[in-house]
Amino acid sequence: MRTTSNPAFRNLPTGGGYGSYAGFGQQYEAQQYGGYQGAPPTTGERPITIDDVVTKTAITLATTLVVGLVSAWLALTGQVPVYGLLLPGLIVGLVVSLIIIFKRTPSAPLVMTYAVAEGVFLGAITAVFEAKFPGIAWQAILGTFGVFGAMLVVYKTGAIRVTPRLTKWIIGATVGVAVLMLGNLLLGLFGVNSGLRDGGALAIVFSLVVIGIAAFNFLLDFESANEMIRSGVPAKWAWWAAFGLMTTLVWLYLEILRLLSYLQRD
């Protein structure tokens, strides 16, 4: 399997010889680029299908959306302080995501806990932006789903093939922007403004670049999930695929929310 910048897809099991199943896009010849990690599925376990991935992703996403709406409402109405929602959601989401990644086995309870925590966090931070820029939340949600849908169409039609060269480019670009964002954060702690997050022209360009890279990461996520289906891993790994897609969706949503706030400033 091709490598991916999404850590959630780096610890997948080897297929157990169940044959080929229809996936997200065109059926490519099953090639191994480094192989999955972990133990092969045991005999008798039902292999994963596209319906499993879609269903588990829909459940996870719906949970985050519902919890997010409740969290945003509580914050906007002042019933719960924003940081009383934002910080716990952020910390729990981060801790649970690390547990999922390093545990290396799919866990529906952990993925759902992650979905709830992210809903609390995203709802709170969305409330902060919504209070300052009314209407920005729905714009960000529509923008996120628009990008996700567009990249799914691109993948399904084969308009962009996920080749080893493209994979390396996406991973390199993802690591690059991550380093820049970390560097900007460290500089900010010392009162240095790099211009990457101040809302100026450079910040807008940087945010557009990050959104583009996040969008291309969906191609790697789709290909990784598709490889799981082609390899016939156990159906329980659909929760792992759902978690991987959710991490990219959360990243994309936050970046779109940030970009929209730049564009709405006076």
UniProtKB/TrEMBL annotation:
TM stretches of this protein: 58-76, 82-102, 109-129, 135-154, 166-187, 199-220, 240-260
Keywords noted in UniProt: Membrane, Transmembrane, Transmembrane helix
Entry coiled-coil feature ranges: none
Cited PANTHER family: CONSERVED TRANSMEMBRANE PROTEIN-RELATED
Name used for this protein in its record: Putative YccA/Bax inhibitor family protein
Annotated organism of origin: Saccharothrix australiensis
